[in-house]
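User: Batch of two.

Assistant: Item 1 of 2:
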Amino acid sequence: MSDQQSSPGPEEADARQQAAEYVVERVESWDEGAEPETVREDLEEGMAEAEVDVPEEELDRMADDIHRDGSTDAPDVE
């Protein structure tokens, strides 16, 4: 058999990307101006709930962006 079941299809990848974008939008609206540690915790928690894996350094970057600028780009999810 093929490994098709172990790799996500395009619909699953799209859903995960949308979930990541939603988490970022939610944290931006709630945590604008909050300390980077608070923003990062909220990002990490939201991504875990959405079952989206984001590298530690990406979470740090996004938290710093939201703290500093009030917004950030959502991570590219595979």
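Item 2 of 2:
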Amino acid sequence: MIDYALNFGFICVSLALLMNLWRLTMGPTTADRILAVDTMTINAIALLVMYGIAKGTSMYFEGALLLAMFGFVSTVAYCKFILRGDIIE
């Protein structure tokens, strides 16, 4: 039963990634594009966690944690760049 749930989850998250990619390319404002990249990071984390569950190893969970930290820092840095034009003060 877990195999069916994982396959359904992979399909749903992959579809969400495609919709985020569409929003990233066709977003009318920069805020839409920033949110699309942030949401793509969250979907990539979900894919890593589901792949870790499917393979039965915890190595992918550590990778998901690193991706979450990198995604948060990059989103904050990009927003700061958009608002102020400089990242390092």
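The first helix runs from residue 2 to 26.
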